[in-house]
């Protein structure tokens, strides 16, 4: 893997010369770290204007909520990370999109709870975008409504999450699958229509799903969602603390080196998954 001449401490994830030029231009306009520039550009197919617009909208949104425009470190968020409000098990669906889980039962619907949710969504999107396959294939968001199914404001909460994913954060959401939602299944059609948000129209396909195995191999689904994947949230947090303490948080993972044909939309092996992917033993979150 090459090293960028202007940023010798950072490895290039197989980018073309023109893409590297766009990364440099993005950094000059925003003064963000190299890796964050790659993430914003990758989620919009290296359209510089779109990436800059996305970053500026994110900056404005977070500023309006009294938050920093860049993701906090794991250490700074450690008091929020006692539960897995959002998590990324390091697996993918049958189309190759990375799995991204929202555990709605941990959401608290007050001002402090919303602020916590925004901080953690910003954080976990940044971690997810470290992976080249995620930057290329996007994410499928699984919203687990267990314990929150009939709570007032559920649709508004999802509208806010989609607003951030579609207009602000450096990630591309392919679709949202809503699970453990019997009341919504009875009251609504199979497809939710989140409508519009402050930034514009929301276009993500948002469906009630009664069987995740229709879209995802069971081996790629965490146990709490009916699959066979053993995932340890605490080990993910520990890995991130160790990585950041070693000063490697700005490096993108080695999966970037793989050839395109090797990254087919099949379940990822341990070599292809994130450094914090599934463990061989243990419980779930």
TrEMBL record:
Tell me the name of the encoding gene. Answer: PTPN9
Domain CRAL-TRIO stretches? 73-233
Q: Which GO terms describe its molecular function?
A: phosphatidylinositol bisphosphate binding
Residue ranges, annotated region (Disordered): 263-285
Superkingdom classification of source: Eukaryota
Q: Which PANTHER family match?
A: ALPHA-TOCOPHEROL TRANSFER PROTEIN-RELATED, CRAL-TRIO DOMAIN-CONTAINING PROTEIN DDB_G0278031
Enumerate composition-biased segments (Low complexity): 268-285
Q: Which InterPro entries match?
A: CRAL-TRIO_dom, CRAL-TRIO_dom_sf
Could you tell me which species this protein originates from?
Geranomyces variabilis
Q: Quote the protein name from its UniProt record.
A: Tyrosine-protein phosphatase non-receptor type 9
Give me the Gene Ontology terms describing cellular component: membrane
């Amino acid at each position: 893997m090459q090293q960028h001449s202007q940023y010798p401490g950072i490895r290039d994830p197989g980018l073309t010369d023109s893409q590297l030029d766009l990364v440099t231009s993005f950094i000059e306009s925003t003064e963000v770290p190299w890796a964050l520039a790659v993430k914003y550009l990758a989620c919009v197919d290296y359209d510089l204007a779109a990436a800059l617009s996305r970053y500026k909208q994110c900056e404005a949104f977070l500023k309006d909520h009294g938050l920093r425009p860049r993701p906090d470190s794991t250490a700074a968020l450690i008091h929020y990370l006692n539960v897995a409000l959002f998590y990324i098990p390091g697996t993918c669906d049958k189309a190759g999109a990375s799995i991204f889980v929202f555990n709605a039962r941990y959401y608290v619907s007050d001002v402090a709870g919303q602020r916590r949710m925004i901080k953690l969504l910003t954080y976990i999107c940044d971690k997810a975008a470290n992976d080249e396959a995620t930057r290329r294939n996007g994410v499928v968001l699984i919203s687990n409504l267990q314990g929150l199914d009939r709570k007032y404001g559920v649709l508004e909460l999802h509208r806010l999450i989609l607003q951030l994913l579609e207009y602000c954060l450096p990630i591309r959401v392919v679709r949202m699958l809503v699970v453990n939602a019997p009341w919504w299944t009875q009251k609504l059609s199979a497809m939710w229509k989140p409508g519009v948000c402050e930034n514009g129209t929301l276009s993500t396909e948002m469906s009630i799903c009664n069987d995740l195995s229709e879209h995802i191999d069971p081996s790629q689904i965490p146990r709490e969602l009916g699959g066979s994947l053993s995932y340890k949230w605490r080990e993910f947090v520990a890995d991130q603390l160790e990585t950041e303490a070693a000063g490697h948080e700005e490096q993108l993972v080695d999966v970037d080196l793989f050839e395109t044909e090797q990254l087919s939309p099949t379940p990822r092996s341990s070599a292809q998954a994130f450094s914090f992917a599934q463990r061989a033993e243990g419980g779930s979150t």
